[in-house]
Amino acid sequence: MKKMLCVAGAVMGIMLLLISPDAGSQTAPNQPKEKEFRIERSMPPEAAACIECHKKEHPGIFADWANSRHASANITCYDCHKAEAFDPDVSKDHDAQYKDYDKKYGAGKLTVPVSAVVTPKDCSRCHPDEAKQYGISKHANTMEIIWKIDPWLINGMNSDFERAAGCYHCHGTVLKVKDGKLDPETWPNVGVGRINLDGSKGSCTSCHTRHRFSVSEARKPEACGQCHLGPDHPQIEIYTESKHGDIYAAQGDDYRWDSAPGTWTAGVDYRAPTCAACHISGTGTVLTSHDVTERLAWELQSPLTVRPSEFKAFPAQTNWETERNKMKEVCKQCHGKTWTDGHFEKTDKVVQEYNEVYFKPAKKMLDDLYAKGLMDSSRFFDEKLEVEYYELWHHEGRRARMGAAMMAPDYSWWHGFYECKKRYNSFMEESRHLIEKNQKAYKATDFPNATGSTVKPEAVFGKTE
């Protein structure tokens, strides 16, 4: 009898589950569960109007925001996007919604000027330290850097549209307004060095994608891999090849990505570091910093490898030995002192060999060709040896150095020094041939699309002659 009652009870339980309105309902892991916001409790009516309107008009935006820490803290669209009526980036189209919109959330009394562009200056109201650190980093100042060192821009060797679709997508545009709207040649853009209309530099959403602004997302290597990839700076490929990347691929799903800022801990929340763990996140006694120049002892992206404080385009206000010790402290969360010291000694040796064996002789040869009048230094890339020299440091040379620094042997050797040898030999052979024959290098007279402006951005450099 008891057995029958138990069976009957189990059957009744299953039936109740089946007839329950919530029974069987499943939500995909990355999709929001419906959540009721009692917006009238803690938000001004303008903010409530933003949420209710965008919930219908842009459900994807609303869903991201609803699952963000901002939403949990009652930080709304209004808090981030509100602007002053006189601001140059106020959306006139958005203002028009209040005049023509027939819904209650478009009532004229709810009118508030807003800007589509949320800048580090806006974010600094709640995140002052992060904005300050980011503002002095190479990321935020990359427009100044590339306009000082990049021959593609300096010599106008690519078109403005090629820049907008390529270079500026990561480096950032100088935002402009055209006919009362954001100029489509400069917007949309979330480049790390974007120059905003309020004078601030950069975009926090380069890493913390809107409108969820997830710390978890920014901690994953894929966030950095949006820009740090390809033949010239393949950090994401290098990381993937490394032991760190291998462990991440195998066990990354088990990492605790959403730990509060300042608490993300090696050996507790993650087994092997990501880009952020080494370069940004707090680790051991090393404090979190959004200045990615910190913890660097070398400028591995530079033609001649120099200390960050000696990088002429943007000298860092750091001491390389202090920063090297910070990075060692990061490494020693998982590695012993002997292992850590040995790794950096090897990296320093790679830098020395690249500088002395490959770059310096090639640079001397290039200067000799210019001095002898066998090549024209007025522009770059329109002569083959200029391309050979450029790719020696900008492609293979970077891969050799970065591969060694991030423990990816295939990039250090086969994609790096092996390719350096071939490029170097080709460059030297043709250079010596020109000198022996006293023959000028062939110059491309129909170099395609060398139409880009050579005027440095006024927003970065001020007015120039």
What is the strand and helix layout of this fold?
Elements: H1 2-19, H2 45-57, H3 59-66, H4 69-72, H5 77-81, H6 92-100, H7 120-123, H8 128-135, H9 142-149, H10 151-154, H11 160-171, E1 177-178, E2 181-182, H12 215-219, H13 221-225, H14 235-241, H15 243-251, H16 275-279, H17 320-331, H18 337-371, H19 384-405, H20 409-437, H21 458-461
Antiparallel strand pairs: 1-2
Helix pairs in contact: 2-3, 14-15, 18-19, 18-20, 19-20
List keywords for this structure.
single chain, 465 residues, mainly alpha, Hydroxylamine Oxidoreductase, Chain A, domain 2, 3 domains, two-stranded antiparallel ribbon, 21 helices, 2 strands, 1% strand, globular, disordered N terminus
Commentary on this structure:
The chain folds into 3 domains: 45-116, no CATH class; 119-206, no CATH class; 219-447, Hydroxylamine Oxidoreductase, Chain A, domain 2. Helices cover 49% and strands 1% of the residues. The chain is built from 21 helices and 2 strands. It has helices at residues 2-19, 45-57, 59-66, 69-72, 77-81, 92-100, 120-123, 128-135, 142-149, 151-154, 160-171, 215-219, 221-225, 235-241, 243-251, 275-279, 320-331, 337-371, 384-405, 409-437, 458-461; strands at residues 177-178, 181-182. The chain has a two-stranded antiparallel ribbon with strand order 1-2. The longest helix has 35 residues, at 337-371.
